[in-house]
Specification:
Helix content: 55-70%
Radius of gyration: 25 Å
Number of helices: 23
Amino acid sequence: MLGFVVLCSVYEYGRVLHMRPLPHHLWRQTTCLSITQEYAEGGNSFFEPAVQSFIADDATSGKTAAEFPIIYYVIGSLWKLIGRTEFAYRLIMLLLHAAGSWALFALTLRVLKDGALAVMVALFFFTVPTVVYFTLAFLPDVPALDFVLLGALALTRFMEAGGFRNGTATLFCFAMGGLLKITALMVPMALFLALSAVLLVPAWRAKALFDLRRIPIVWGGLILVFLIVAAWTWYAVRYNHWNSASYSVMGTWALWDIGEADRASALRFGRDILIYQIFDGPVWWALAGMLLVLIRYVRWIPVELVLFNAFLFGGTVLYVLLWTIALNNHDYYFIAPLVLPISLMLTFFWMVRERWPQAITSRWTKATLFLLLVYHGAYAATNHQMRTQAGRPVDAAALLPLYHDAELEHWRMTQYWAMADLLDIVPLARKVGVLPQDLVITVPDESVCSALYLIEQHGFNEFGGVRMDSATVADRVRRGAKYLYLLGNDTAVTTPLEGWLDRRILAHGEVGIYDLRRSP
């Protein structure tokens, strides 16, 4: 854990732990935080997740669901005791990733029988820039990966020694991973397909690495995992149907379903920026080299591992094809697929240990891996520094020269923009009479609930294609809205609101608060 703590220090986690939700994917972060807030203060039951924006039930509630809300519910319950604190949320996320990193270390040690290699492999996957950022964000993607790693460790123990505890831990962790992020089912699905193939082909059964008597048990357990995730997915879809609202696309956004312009934009962004949010160039080349060696010596690898990696590879390719739009700045979608390079690296080192053990024990090998770890840690630290400037322009002179020009420009442009003045507006709003229970309107605001979460209010915005004009404001006033928060002074926004902007009670930077408690 010393190396994990050192990396946390290098990434300035002590600073970031105390920060408000950062601009990169503010929309999605505040959605998670808003659901947590509703569990803390809204009186919702576990199976009634909601956000602060009234996007459901004909603009009368915020009831909507996507991923299994266990993290939101647990932290919301904690907030009932200690009050709303994003620091506690970030800290719990960090502890979950510490557990996941430990699981990867223990799994690698079990496979390679080498403590130094196990440490370096586990720490290396804590130098993935996207993982570094979202470990302290509020999305479920990193915890989903962590649970899958814990499940893989438990499965390895079960396949070697059996035991009810190991079997139960495997099912629980895999189910939690899939419930938090359905794409985390890549590992259980690849395992299911690989083990099924081994059972069905007599020649492969004869060469199986694990005890064949345990494979049907694992096979049945994985089916149970799929059924559990399917049950929640069914419920979430029905829940959204009942309440006529959804904050997340519960389907695909495939390469062949998006327009030419969107396809070109996604592929360009993926090539120029997103690919470097996973690994920098030297790591991609190293992984490519490992893959080529594995292909060359594929007959030396147990059939289960060959099939598992093949299914993971095919699943990842299929995932990119089905969610091509994610290439356009949705880096957190590629956290779950990190199981592929993890598996590739472990398989490579296992094969080398079996065939060329002197290469594994060589000081040159470990020195090379250590230098790659140090380099990529510095690269991730530089990336994290650019991501966490909290509204300040990124100063290239203060960075290590370990970034790409397009990447630097992208993070310079990733700011709070019109929502910057909402970060500290709550005490000012209270002074002019806006009460916590007052319903408000935020405009322009097409997010699920970014502005409403930051100002600590419930109310209405423009999510889902709502056009906030004078008539819409009048409707929201009839539904109880008392104040309007105007973000900026764009005439394209203010002109349709004519008649509602003549009673400003607070001006704070580019944000104005207007009293709506009278007819225009």
